[in-house]
Amino acid sequence: MSWAERLQTVLVALAALAGLAAGAAGDFGRFAEPVVLPALLMMITAVFVQLNLTQVRQVRGAGSLVICSLVLNYLVTPLLAWGLGAGLLADQPDLRIGLLLLLVTPCTDWYLVFIALARGHTGIATALLPVNLILQLMLLPVYVLLLGGNAASVSLDSLVEAIVVVLLIPLTLATTLRWVSRRADLPALDSARLDRWASAVVIPMLCVAVFAMFLWQAPTVLGHTAELLYLLLPLGVFFLVLPVLATLSARALKLPGPQRVTLTMVTVARNSPIALGIAVVAFPDRPLIALALVLGPLVELPVLAVLSQVLRHREGRTLD
Known about the structure:
globular, transmembrane helix, Na+/solute_symporter_sf, Na+/H+ antiporter like fold, mainly alpha, BilAc:Na_symport/Acr3, membrane, 0% strand
C-alpha cells in the first residue's frame, strides 16, 4: 500500500478543509466549479483501468460467497439505506438522497487494499469488481427513483445521462487504453506504465475534486454544517450493522476464513467517488447531495482500516 493510500482519509479531509478555507476567504467558487467533474472523470477512468474483466471466472469457485454478497449489496443494503434515510433524515431530503447514493453503490476499487490487509481472498474480490460495476449501472436509477421518493425529484433521463457521463464514458476510455496498451508498441502506454499511472492518479484527483467542490460550495457548507452532521448517525448505524450481518451470514454458510473476510469487506465498502460523480451530474443544483458523499468516505475509510485489522487478528486466532 502506498503512502497516499495509507493517508487517504487524512488527505481527503485536508483537501476539504483547504477548499473550505479558501472559499471562505474570497469569491473563488466560479473558478473551482469547472474543475470538479473533469477531476472526477479522470479519477474514475484510472479506477477502471485497473479492472481486469478476465478475472470474473474466478467467482465460479465461490458461489455461496457471491450469491450472499449480491443479496446483501443489492437487496438488504438498499432497504437499510431507505430505512435509515426515512427514519433519521426524514426532514433532510438532500441528505437522504446523498445517503442513498452512497450506500447502494458497492465499492469497485479501494476495498481490495483492505481485503489484502485483512488476509482475505483478493482473487475473488477482484473478480467481483466488474460484476458490481455492471449491476450498479443497471440498478442505480431504479434505487433512486423507487427508494428516493419525492426527495429524488430527478427524471430518469437525468439519471441515465449521469451514468453515461460518469460510468460508461470512463469505462469505455479505460477499456480503450487497456486495449491499446496490449496491442500497440508504444513504450509510454505499456501495461506496466499504464497500471502505475492509474494507481498513482486516483487519490490526487479525488483530492483535487474534493478541494474544488468545497471551494465552490463553501457558502453552502458553512450555512449547513449542522445538517451535514446529521449524517453521522445513519452512517454509524450502517457501518455497525453491515459487518454484523456479513459475519453472521458467513458463519451460516460455513465459509473458509479468507472468504469470510472477503464477504465482510465487499458488503461494507462503498463507492463514494462514483456516487459523487453521479451526484454532480444528476443533481447540479443540489450541492448538499454531493457534499454528503464527500463526508461519507471520511467515516468509511477509518472504519475499513479498523475492520481490516479486527478481521485479520480474528482469522489469525481461528487458524491458530
